[in-house]
Specification:
Elements: H1 41-62, E1 71-76, H2 77-85, H3 91-98, E2 101-102, E3 123-126, H4 128-138, E4 140-141, E5 145-151, E6 158-160, E7 166-172, H5 181-186, E8 197-200, H6 207-218, E9 229-235, E10 245-246, H7 248-254, E11 257-260, E12 279-286, H8 297-304, H9 312-317, E13 324-325, H10 332-342, H11 345-352, H12 371-383, E14 393-394, H13 397-406, H14 418-432, H15 455-472, H16 476-481, E15 483-490, E16 497-504, E17 507-510, E18 516-525, E19 537-545, H17 550-561, E20 568-574, E21 577-581, H18 586-589, H19 594-597, E22 604-608, E23 616-626, E24 635-637, E25 642-647, H20 655-666, H21 674-683, E26 710-712, E27 752-757, E28 801-802, H22 809-815, H23 820-843, E29 856-859, E30 865-869, H24 897-900, E31 937-939, E32 952-957, H25 959-967, H26 981-995, E33 998-999, H27 1000-1007, E34 1011-1012, E35 1019-1021, E36 1026-1028, E37 1031-1038, E38 1042-1048, E39 1064-1065, E40 1069-1072, E41 1086-1096, E42 1103-1109, E43 1116-1120, E44 1123-1127, E45 1138-1145, H28 1157-1216, E46 1229-1230, H29 1249-1254, E47 1275-1278, E48 1285-1288, H30 1291-1300, E49 1309-1312, E50 1318-1320, ...
Parallel strand pairs: 2-4, 7-10, 7-12, 13-14, 17-38, 18-22, 23-32, 26-31, 33-39
Antiparallel strand pairs: 1-3, 1-5, 5-6, 7-8, 9-11, 9-12, 15-16, 15-37, 18-19, 20-21, 20-22, 23-24, 23-25, 27-28, 27-32, 29-30, 34-37, 35-36, 38-45, 40-41, 41-42, 41-45, 42-43, 43-44, 46-49, 47-48, 49-50
Catalytic activity: Thiol-dependent hydrolysis of ester, thioester, amide, peptide and isopeptide bonds formed by the C-terminal Gly of ubiquitin (a 76-residue protein attached to proteins as an intracellular targeting signal)
Region (Disordered): 1-43, 865-942, 1209-1290, 1314-1340
EC number: 3.4.19.12
């Protein structure tokens, strides 16, 4: 830029809303040379414009060009030309045309000046005086562009420093800010705070100015003393990748170049110390105010670090890896698996030497963007950090948080299975470290049929499968842990054989013990002949394999009871009612383990109900009894629900048949024979006549005695009949339809009343228990029609109606004949009363007909007239009372308690049977509407269907009968057990196995045992073109160098549902796998134990620990979360808690590493690089140590100079007589607040805390009444927390500033008089004021 006057150019004025308001009041004195030249206003305006332009021109030509460090401003050259030469009538006219000084036109959108040779708007340098005049007259738009003057070292000329250096400020923290995968790949703006803050400062400023700028503008700690901060200039190849926060480890070991700015150069300019580049990175370090010695963090770290950790020879002689892992809350499953994995030597070296960083795969869609591998590597380095020898444990919180982000199973703090976690972790590490970035498609090879028995073809197939696997999966996990299974499937029909090979990382071995499921069922025999030895209700304990399903249970019961499975029905009973119908969920049950279907607490009844599905229906039956206390009116069920089988073509129409079958079935609930008791009652009845079948003649009240009377009954339309379509009067046995099943001596309601509920259909109710938790959106299975319509809830008994109500009236009377006389007498009385009322009404009616007009017609058996009588009307005569059976009167329609009495003990209260003859004439009613009018041909009508498949029956028992038959004679409690010798034999065998040890070799043998696939796990045979129950055999073809064996102690998929607590004897050294590997070419199959993952506990949870052999010192240790203890005898690890076993393949050379040649070479090269890195780290440590020591020496030197300066000044004052020697408690105190007396170093420390906390910052001087010991001046010290501050003396800081800046070295003398008053001689400039003045000189 030239300092010449800019050429005059014309520029049209512009205005902007952002312009600063113009002011006509200038702080500068403008020469008034035209006061007396012109008197008119026009001349005055022109003179004002000319004077202002002349003033600026004079300042441009004659003003001081400034010295280095002075601030100058840059403005548009065009704007300055227009100010000087743009035509205008007055200054106001020029203001309107020019507008404000536009600073935005000379900088880009980021506020940065354009390069000098590529400026869209040419700039001109002006002095602060010129800029202030222009800004005062015209205002400004945008931030003024201020730059300092600097001398060009090459030319010696003064130039404006257009581009001062930019300083990127990093802060020292405990841990760096981690950039997530999202921010690394998407540069999300919300994470901008992780980038370092950038500030700018002229090279002419001092390091003190730079430190002060950082303290105030970046750290926002203006009140903290400046000596609480120090800065490091850092430089590294990847410095741009670092975030705003760096750790001490980053500073010492990761940053290539670092230089600590010591206090000796704080007063030097940046230029003088070689600050010439455009950008620098600075790390600011703040004193730890909470530390006991008030040190910088780097000093503390260097004092605590063990230097021997950088000596490889000494490090190798030391043992590490003894740190436990803190339990974060149910994370013992993670801690135990990690300890086992961390102590695998090859895994340890691979991560410790940072070899994993070379193979991180960030692009794998199946991976975790390298986060799992990084988290595991960081955890391993912490666990094996030699400097942590004083600690007992570390907290894996960062690792737990990382795995939780990528696996929902391990995101919370629920107990998990350690084997599942290990399997997931190995897979996650494999995907993060997979060396294959683009996986090719590989078609799975198969053997030809003629090659099935060719060993060489099988070996070749295995090699092909392994190579294909390595083409897609190649990592350190594959090198160490992966082996191959050989799976062989054999078709049972065509003998088609299929051989495949599949990889595995851990070998799951079943324990060779009978894994049985036991449950006790209640067997209810409802057959006619009986299949159980003893009573019809017995207990049976069942033994099945854990993998059995519902079909297996039915088969077991069928074989044991020797009955068909279709006749067995299983229900869960709860409170004498059905609760679960296992047949209802058959389509689901047949796919599920039996332990998931029937739980231990379930009370399951197995009903044996023989039936013909073509002709029979099965009806559920409940038994109830009313509470003897009538005031409650409570009816409860008793016993167990039963079933009755009825022929749907005949039995469902016969009330008598239904009752008889119910009586037969209910008999199983009592030790008494109810049929026998029933017969006793009949035989004890007076005048009882026993017949096989009763006819109409035995019911005299219902049928008249006449030789010509014929009882005709029309069968239902769907019955098959013979002849003319009518049944004979009686068959050869004397059976006449339902009438023969009625008993004239005992009512059909005797003992219990049959009630029914028709039309019931199953609908799951709100309390229906869902055992299986199937998804709501799962496809619905088609359920076949139910054989038995069982209610899965307790029915409402008031909804049941008597079954006899469905009978025709006459047929109902036959079944309730013993109580019919009550009904008959009542009807006859009603009839007589009705006739009498008619006669009275007839006699009183004058217009009525004569008596001759009335006649009564009696019909004979043939339907003709028997007699006709004229004259007075006479009611028909009632039958003599002695010809009608005498009944006890009762308000009840049926027999009540008072009628029955002790029915099974005595028949004294039973109704008297009717005589066989002598009553026919008396039973001839004169009214055809009489209910006793039974024609010679009694038509009962079509039979109603009493029972359907949706009917539920209920036997409502009279309490006296219930009490006598069931209370003392019930059979549904204390049920006898049905012997099961086979089960007892197997149980004794299993118990002997549990008490004895089994060998790991036994587990290996049982692993390869062939098994037949289940009905629901069929294999599709390509030759048969159908699914078959093939025979499956799995063998170990090859094993990894690290063999992880999973002892399958937990049976089902639900963890801890059942645990086998058995000791498995496994070898500590020399596990020989050669006999259990199918590959005939396998070599070196000897393994040694290195770790055991233990599980203690059982159902629902437990606790995990680890027993591990440290490969560095060769000793065994027991890791119980954060607690670590030594194991003296390795045999102690063989316990019943052993869950995961880690074996290491034995090598011929102890110095060789496993995993193959490539991994071996990688670890060896990493070993050498690690040694070199230790040397580099030691050099970095020494460099930082030297710089810190140099800084400390400067600090100590300053302190000594300050002490000497204070002592000399004290002597001068005493010699000049300004102050007297301290006497009688008087002290001389300087501005820093430290008394001259050596015994009173900091009087502020003696001030009460409450006084220090409440004192205002602006009022830190002592009041006149303060004592001498509290009169020191002090300042507040602010920590990083804005609300946390301490009241601290800042005397050392002020003394340092005096020594560093001589021109500001004005000591303030405070003389304490005996009256307590203070006299101040001078006052230094405050630090904040100094920074404010600095802000006027440069742009930040």
């Amino acid at each position: 830029m030239s300092d010449d006057t800019p050429a005059a150019t014309a520029l049209s004025s512009s205005s902007s809303s952002d312009s600063v308001n113009l002011s006509t009041n200038s702080p500068y004195k403008i020469p008034n040379s035209t006061d007396n030249l012109k008197s008119d206003s026009e001349s005055l305006l022109e003179t004002e414009l000319m004077e202002k332009r002349h003033l600026i021109e004079e300042l441009i030509h004659n003003s001081n060009t400034g010295k280095e460090g002075d601030p100058w401003y840059l403005i548009s050259t065009e704007y300055l030309n227009n100010f000087l030469h743009l035509p205008a009538t007055s200054f106001e006219d020029l203001q309107s045309k020019l507008g404000p000084v536009d600073n935005t036109s000379i900088v880009d959108q980021n506020g940065i000046l354009y390069p000098e040779n590529n400026e869209p708007v040419e700039t001109y340098n002006v002095s602060p005086e010129i800029f202030n005049y222009l800004a005062d007259w015209f205002g400004t738009k945008g931030q003024p562009v201020c730059r300092c003057l600097i001398i060009n070292p090459e030319t010696g000329a003064k130039e404006v420093e257009r581009f001062p250096p930019v300083f990127h400020i990093h802060q020292l923290g405990k841990r760096p800010v981690q950039n997530s995968y999202y921010t690394r790949h998407h540069n999300h703006p919300t994470h901008a705070t992780s980038h370092p803050t950038a500030v700018s400062l002229s090279r002419t400023k001092t390091f003190t100015d730079l430190l002060d700028l950082i303290r105030v503008s970046v750290l926002k700690l203006p009140k903290r003393p400046i000596d609480n901060f120090r800065i490091w200039f850092i430089e590294s190849k990847n410095i741009a990748e670092y975030t705003s926060t760096l750790t001490i480890s980053n500073l010492i070991f990761d940053i290539d170049n670092k230089s600590l700015v010591h206090s000796g150069i704080l007063k030097d300019t940046l230029k003088s110390q070689g600050i010439k580049s455009d950008a620098f990175h600075i790390l600011v370090e703040v004193k730890d105010a909470k530390a006991s010695h008030d040190r910088f963090p780097v000093n503390t770290y260097l004092n605590q670090i063990d230097v021997e950790q950088y000596d490889f020879d000494k490090l190798s002689s030391k043992s590490s890896g003894h740190l436990g892992l803190s339990n974060l809350g149910n994370t013992c499953y993670m801690n135990s698996a990690l300890q086992c994995l961390l102590h695998v030597a090859e895994v340890n070296y691979y991560f410790l030497y940072n070899l994993y960083k070379r193979e991180l795969n960030f692009d794998n869609p199946l991976g975790n963007h390298g986060d799992i591998a990084n988290a595991f590597g960081n955890l391993l380095k912490q666990a094996f950090d030699p400097s942590s020898s004083k600690d007992s444990s570390i907290t894996p919180r960062e690792f737990k948080s990382t795995i939780g982000r990528y696996s929902s199973m391990f995101s919370g703090y629920m107990q998990q299975d350690s084997q599942e976690f290990l399997s997931w972790l190995l897979d996650a590490l494999h995907e993060d470290l997979n060396r294959i970035h683009k996986k090719p498609y590989c078609e799975k090879p198969e053997l030809k049929d003629e090659e099935i028995n060719d060993p060489k073809a099988i070996i070749k197939l295995s090699e092909t499968c392994w190579n294909q696997h390595k083409m897609r999966n190649d990592s350190v996990i594959t090198d160490l842990f992966t082996g191959l299974y050989q799976s062989t499937l054999l078709c049972p029909d065509c003998s088609k054989t299929s051989i495949t090979f599949d990889p595995f990382n851990d070998l799951t071995l079943p324990l060779p013990i009978s894994k049985k499921w036991y449950h006790t069922f209640t067997i209810v025999d409802l057959s006619d002949g009986g299949i159980l030895r003893g009573t019809r209700i017995m207990k049976l304990e069942v033994e099945l394999n854990k993998t059995s399903n519902f079909d297996d249970l039915l088969t077991y019961l069928s074989d044991f009871l020797k009955v068909e499975t279709t006749h067995l029905f299983l229900y869960e009973i709860f409170r004498n009612s059905f609760y679960s119908d296992f047949q209802l969920d058959y389509n689901r049950n047949k796919f599920m383990p039996i332990s998931d279907i029937v739980r231990d607490s379930d009370e399951v009844h197995v009903y044996y109900v023989p039936y013909n599905p073509e002709t029979d229906i099965i009806i559920p039956v409940y038994n109830t009894v009313e509470d003897p206390d009538k005031s409650y009116k409570v009816t409860e069920t008793f016993g167990i629900p039963l079933f009755v089988t009825l022929n749907k073509e005949s039995d469902v129409y016969s009330f008598g048949t239904i009752r008889q079958k119910l009586l037969d079935k209910v008999s199983i609930l009592s030790k008494l024979d109810l049929n026998e008791e029933y017969n006793k009652i009949k035989n004890d009845t007076e005048s009882y006549v026993e017949k096989k079948h009763y006819g109409p003649k035995d019911f005299p009240l219902l049928c008249k005695q006449d030789d010509n009377a014929v009882l005709v009954e029309k069968p239902p339309s769907d019955h098959t009949i013979e002849g003319d379509g009518q049944l004979d009067e009686e068959d050869e046995d004397g059976y006449i339809s339902d009438i023969s099943l009625a008993n004239p001596f005992i009512s059909a309601d005797f003992g219990f009343t049959i009630k029914s509920l028709n039309g019931y259909s199953h609908k799951p109710h709100a309390n229906f228990r869902n055992r299986y938790n199937f998804a709501r959106n799962a496809p619905k299975t088609v359920t076949p029609p139910r054989v038995i319509n069982v209610p899965l809830h307790k029915p409402t008994f008031n909804e049941f109606k008597p079954l006899s109500d469905q009978l025709p009236e006459l047929k109902k009377d036959f079944y309730h004949y013993p109580t019919y006389d009550k009904k008959f007498n009542k009807e006859m009385e009603d009839l007589a009363e009705e006739v009498q009322n008619d006669l009275i009404a007839s006699a009183s009616d004058d217009t009525s007909k004569s008596n001759d007009d009335y006649e009564f017609v009696m019909l004979d058996a043939e339907g003709g007239e028997e007699a006709t009588k004229n004259g007075s009307v006479q009611p028909p005569a009632l039958p003599p009372r002695n010809l009608i059976p005498q009944m006890n009167s009762s308000d009840e329609d049926t027999e009540g308690e008072q009628n029955l009495g002790s029915l099974f003990d005595s028949t004294s209260t039973l109704p008297i049977p009717p005589p066989s003859s002598g009553y026919a004439e008396s039973l001839k009613p004169s009214n055809e509407n009489s209910p006793t009018n039974t024609p010679s041909e009694v038509e009962l009508g079509n039979h109603p269907e009493l029972i359907t498949k949706d009917t539920i029956l209920l036997c409502d028992w009279d309490y006296p009968i219930f009490e006598q038959c069931f209370v003392e004679n019930q059979t549904w409690e204390n049920i006898p057990v049905l012997p099961n010798p086979e089960l007892e034999k197997n149980r004794a065998k299993i118990e002997r196995q549990r008490k004895s040890k089994i060998s790991l070799y036994d587990c290996l043998k049982s692993f390869s045992t062939p098994e037949i696939l289940g009905e629901h796990d069929l294999w599709y045979c390509p030759r048969c073109k159908d699914h078959k129950r093939a025979t499956k055999t799995i063998q170990v073809w090859s094993t990894g160098d690290i063999l992880t064996i999973h002892l399958k102690r937990f049976h089902s998929a639900r963890a801890f549902s059942d645990k086998i607590e058995m000791v498995v004897d496994f070898p500590i050294e020399g596990l020989d796998m050669s006999s259990y590997i199918a590959n005939p070419e396998a070599e070196n199959s000897l393994y040694d134990l290195i770790a055991v993952d233990n599980h203690y506990g059982g159902l629902g949870g437990g606790h995990y620990t680890a027993s591990v052999k440290n490969f560095r010192d060769g000793n065994w240790y027991y890791f119980n979360d954060s607690r670590v203890t030594s194991i003296n005898n390795p045999e102690e690890v063989i316990t019943s808690a052993a869950y995961l076993l880690f074996y290491r393949k034995r090598t011929t050379d102890p110095d060789d590493y496993l995993g193959g040649g490539d991994l071996n070479n990688m670890i060896r090269s990493g070993h050498e690089l690690y040694k070199k890195s230790l040397i580099t780290k030691k050099a970095s440590y020494d460099l930082v140590q030297q710089q810190v020591e140099k800084y400390t020496k400067h600090e100590e030197q300053i302190k000594r100079e300050m002490e000497l300066d204070r002592e000399l000044e004290k002597r001068k004052l005493q010699e000049s007589g300004s102050i007297e020697a301290p006497e009688n408690g008087e002290e001389t105190v300087y501005e820093d607040g430290e008394a001259a007396s050596p015994n009173n170093s900091k009087s502020a420390d003696n001030e009460p805390v409450s006084a220090r906390k409440t004192r205002s910052f602006t009022n830190t001087k002592d009041s006149p009444n303060d004592s001498v010991t509290t009169s020191a001046k002090a300042k507040f010290k602010f920590d990083n927390d804005e609300d946390d501050y301490d009241y601290e003396d800042d005397s050392d800081n002020i003394r340092k500033q005096r020594l560093l800046s001589k021109e500001n070295n004005n000591n303030k003398l405070v003389q304490i008089k005996s009256n307590g008053k203070q006299e101040v001689a001078s006052s230094p400039i405050a630090m904040e004021a100094e920074y404010d003045s600095m802000g006027e000189d440069c742009s930040v």
